[in-house]
Amino acid sequence: MTRIVIDKRGRIVGGTIVGPRAGESLAELTLAVQQGLSTRDLAGVTHPYPTYNDALWNAAIAHARSGLDSPLATAAVRVLLRFNRWRHDRRRNAQLNSR
């Protein structure tokens, strides 16, 4: 079982890891707390091969994904999609007009 404690800004401030080889994951958790890393920082780490640290990594990914469900994130994605469509249409129209 892995549980991480997160402040309002998404920084990891503590955690609990229970299970076989929990000591392997404690080093990464300790580093994240000491360096003030966020769950997004930890979720962005690429491990060279699957290890027991996956439980900590998966907990960080779950928290980072939950932030994507917020109304603000949804609105931001909609704005970016509209901008991308506008830019694509503008570029396509420019190509058609240059022919």
Kindly describe this structure:
It is a single chain. This protein is mostly helical. The protein folds into two domains: 2-67, Enolase-like, domain 1 (2-Layer Sandwich), CATH 3.30.390.30; 70-99. The protein is built from four helices and two strands, in the order E-E-H-H-H-H. It has a two-stranded antiparallel ribbon. Strand 1 and strand 2 (12-17) form a beta hairpin. The longest helix is centred in the last third of the chain and has 27 residues, at 71-97. It is elongated. The protein starts with a strand and ends with a helix.
Which SSEs are present, and which pair or pack?
Elements: E1 2-6, E2 12-17, H1 22-35, H2 39-43, H3 54-67, H4 71-97
Antiparallel strand pairs: 1-2
